[in-house]
Structure formats: structure tokens, C-alpha cells
Amino acid sequence: MEIVERKENPLLDRVELSFIWDHPGQPTPSLSEMVEASVKSEPGSDKKLVYVKNVNTRFGMSRTTGLALVYGSADSASIEPDYVSERHKSETIPEEKEKAAETPQDSDEKETSEEGES
Predict the structure, then answer these.
(1) Number of domains in the chain
(2) Assigned domain for 115 exists
């Protein structure tokens, strides 16, 4: 991911990052991948306060452009429309559910191996 333009907007307490992401031979990056890359490119940012908008991939090209908005506080991020906030929340929830689902399986495997030893 390459940052084309970085603009500080102190009035809205955010940093606006215009980016280009070249992904030859791969599908368009997911929303969560773009948020992660934006967090890495802006030190001190919180993943929950990053919103990716205006994502565009041209047909036949492996180049995606977009705009990442990195807010300084949850209060300033509240100006984002509800549907944008919900979209970003729903993108992070499946990852948390997968991590939670992996943990109980590990404990079940230990219990079955302990029963087999007796």
C-alpha cells in the first residue's frame, strides 16, 4: 500500500490518507486488510477509529485506490454515518468469532487426550 497524499484535518480531528494498493495476481484487498494497512502507515492510530471509503478497483487492473480516514478520538469519529460504522464493525466481528471458536477446540482436544491416557 502506497500513501499518495496525507492531509491533516484539525477541524474534524482526523488524518486523510489517499492510497494506491497494487495487488497483481491477487483479489481486491478486503476492508479489514485496508484498515490494517492504514493503521500501520499512521503511527499511533487506533484500528477502531480508522474508516476506509471511496475504494475503487478498475476492471482488468490489479490496482485499488481509496481514502482512509484516521480519527483522533471516538467523539470525532461519531460524525461518520451509521451505515459506515456498522460496515466496519461487521468486518472485524467475524475475525473475533474465529479466534474465540479456536480456543474451545484446543481445550476439547486436551480433554480427549487425557481421557485416552487413563
Answers:
(1) 1
(2) no
